[in-house]
Amino acid sequence: MEKSIDEINRRIRDGSARVVTADEMPDIVSELGEEGALQEVDVVTTGTFGAMCSSGAFLNFGHAEPPIKMERIWLNDVEAYGGIAAVDTYIGATNKSVTRMESYGGAHVIEDFISGKSIELRAQSSGSDCYPRRSITTELRLEDLNQAIMVNPRNAYQRYDAAVNTSEDTLYTYMGTLLPHNANVTFSGAGTLNPICNDPNLRLIGSGVPILLGGAQGMVIGEGTQHSSAGSFATLMTTADMTEMNTDFLRAAIMYRYGPTLYLGVGIPLPVLDIETVRRTAVRDSDIMISIKDFGVPSRSRPVIGQVSYADLKSGTIELNNEEITTSSLSSFRRAKMVANTLKRWIEEGQMTLCLPTRFIDTSKQAKPMRETRKVVLVQEIMQRKVVTIKEGQEITEAARKLLKGETNHLPVLNEQGRLTGVITTFDIAKAVARPERKVKVQDIMTRNVITTQADEPIDIAAQKLEHHRISALPVVDAQNQCIAILHASDLGKLFKPGGGRP
């Protein structure tokens, strides 16, 4: 048995269509069987609600008097793109305010527009004969704009890797705050409600297909950026009219010490055409497996340290390396279900009919990494190979003598096997002299939790360590934790030529 899209749309129009949400479908299939579910169900609605950084909106302000060709544009001090004709712009969700920095961004501008607030527009221009005005400042509401069209380059990931942190430092990422030593796991996505998880081969989802986006009726434009369906990381480019949206389905947010993002509801109705559709929409959280990746490794290819299902993650704890770890979701399952239920209501009330893709999305595509034409500078290219060290059992007077020579302000401390066990600075010596007590050996006053780097580590990562920990030097260690060099903050100056650019 098969059904056509026309048959399903006729049922929608006459009010006889049976519509269920994606989390209801598995039990229906278990109860009725695949053939029975195909006869019973006409549409399965999906939904997700989570952080979708790759989102934004095209806005048209209309012409001022005298007219201006806007070249630089700020909305509530968030810079928007000014390279589209005279009075058009694109505001990206993650762009930060120039005054409030990470506490306010493009996502907040979008939410403020939708919630009816007034937004300050500032723009500058170099002026021309046909656009003589050079600056403008005004207040605008959403209703004042000619168009406000959300166009999101990448939404609704098919799945998202879970994140953990094996390093010794707390990390602040797009996956939220990751505590050191595998203390927590964060994840994103709606699992069984996720649109593409219910149509992994993209038979029903493609260009022109109607969707719910931010509470408005919109559509899929096509594949999203970084679409990688071959690796089960399919994405969608989406669009809808902002004037029809509401903040029940759209919220600005801040990822602490990372920046602004836009939480967005996306839902796609799937017509139940055949047995294949029934099988795909019967997916459960326990069927959807994702990788756990170590964000403690600052690399594009982060190591996979485990595999879990959404059912495991939603339980609140998982076992990793024989330890129980707390999980936390960056998505809202309640709002994802609200998205799916809203779609269900629209279809039951005849407010939305369905269609098949006007153009199908490539399911063999694999995302490529960036092609880099300039080499990455490594620590070994600027580190100081002549490093002054001291043994942990030596007197602090000997450490003071070495430091007073002026060759260094940091002494890596080694054990009898020559391995790094600590570091001592002039500040440590000063504290020991001020409070002599019984501390006479280097090992008594050294810092034991040493932040290090490796010779083959990119200099950008080493520089971030210096800034993050507010230190001025990093011992360079090998695989045996032997100190082979030292990198000072002042060494970073070697990266720049007298003219100010990198060599």
Topology, number of strands: 31
Percent helix, as a range, is 10-25%
In total, the number of domains comes to 3
Largest pleated sheet = 9 strands, antiparallel
Radius of gyration: 29 Å
Structural class: alpha+beta
Uncertain ranges: none
Write up what this structure looks like.
- The structure is a single chain.
- Helix 2 packs antiparallel against helix 4.
- A hairpin with a 3-residue loop joins strand 8 (96-97) and strand 9.
- The chain has 503 residues and is α+β, with helices and mostly antiparallel strands.
- The relative contact order is 0.13.
- The mean pLDDT is 93.
Core attributes:
single chain, 503 residues, alpha+beta, CBS-domain, 3 domains, 9-stranded antiparallel beta sheet, 4-stranded antiparallel beta sheet, 19% helix
In short:
The chain has 503 residues and is an alpha+beta fold. Helix content is 19%, strand content 30%.
List the helices and strands and how they pair.
Elements: H1 5-14, E1 19-21, H2 25-40, E2 43-45, E3 48-51, E4 56-60, E5 72-75, E6 78-80, E7 88-92, E8 96-97, E9 101-105, H3 106-114, E10 119-124, E11 135-140, E12 147-155, E13 162-164, E14 171-173, E15 176-178, E16 184-187, E17 210-213, E18 216-223, E19 236-241, E20 250-255, E21 259-267, E22 269-271, H4 275-281, E23 289-294, E24 304-309, H5 310-314, E25 317-320, E26 323-329, H6 333-348, E27 390-391, H7 396-404, E28 410-414, E29 420-425, H8 426-434, H9 442-445, H10 459-469, E30 473-477, E31 483-488
Parallel strand pairs: 1-2, 13-23, 16-26, 27-28
Antiparallel strand pairs: 2-22, 3-21, 4-7, 4-12, 5-6, 5-10, 8-9, 10-11, 12-19, 14-15, 17-18, 17-21, 18-19, 20-21, 23-24, 25-26, 28-29, 30-31
